[in-house]
From TrEMBL:
This is Flagellar motor switch protein FliN-like C-terminal domain-containing protein. Residues 20-86 form the Flagellar motor switch protein FliN-like C-terminal domain.
């Protein structure tokens, strides 16, 4: 019957959501950029340290798809981000 079919569809959708919610993925946070010359780049070697000031805001992406704008800061001894804007909601 139609009610059983609708219940089956709802159960399938619930299982799909549950499965998808457990998928692991990586977030990429754009933490700034450095400008250099080819000469400086060619002189870099293992152990060299490049320092820079982190941006106030960074874009958070998954697979190159922008999701959030985040404030960059420090929490304890770690660099951290605070989500400030949901790009998906903003672009609707």
């Amino acid at each position: 019957s139609r009610i059983q079919s609708q219940e089956a569809d709802e159960n399938w959708l619930a299982r799909l959501r549950n499965t998808v919610s457990e998928v692991d993925f990586s977030l990429l946070v754009s933490g700034g950029h450095l400008e250099t010359t080819v000469e400086q780049l060619s002189k870099l070697s293992e152990g060299d340290i490049l320092s820079f000031d982190p941006p106030e805001m960074a874009e958070v992406t998954v697979n190159g798809f922008p999701l959030y704008e985040a404030q960059v800061g420090i929490k304890g001894s770690k660099v951290a981000i605070k989500i400030e804007d949901n790009i998906l909601e903003r672009e609707g």
